[in-house]
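## retry 2 of 3
previous attempt timed out at serialization; input unchanged, resubmitting
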Amino acid sequence: MLGRPPNRQADVSCCSDAIEFVLQLLGGRLKERNITVKKVPMATGSRVRLQIARSELTQVLVNLVVNACDAMPDGGIIRIACARSGDYGTIRVADTGHGIAPDQLDQVFSPFYSSKGNLGTGLGLSICESIVRQCNGQIDVTSEPGVGTEFIVRLPVVKAGAGLQEAGRTT
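## retry succeeded, writing output
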């Protein structure tokens, strides 16, 4: 497909707004599965504005939260945090699910890898990694079987006074 590459410098998303949107979007699933979400307050005390399109940040967060839900079929806790550290914003999505075996950790971002059998396509985390890397970010995972999994997403923050568009507003 031909087209102009996106101007990623012009894309801005507020981390806390995106988290709220995704939690509202997935609220029924979370409630149905008896999953509690704990939003950890931001250490910086201010809104973290990231250089990523809202639709892309939403897609990353939806995939991470859905995977966390799937890892806790009998309920559990998802912890979500967003904070700024220097030139990057860090989003953490942690669950109290079944965890990932150490020998499978290096495969989770591979296309078509799934631990869900026929229930998953194996594309969600691969897409997440692709989006994050295209935005000059990084995504990592840590896990302990029987304890849970944490995904850590680092994305560049918007520099003060950049005058970019955020969700239809000039910032």
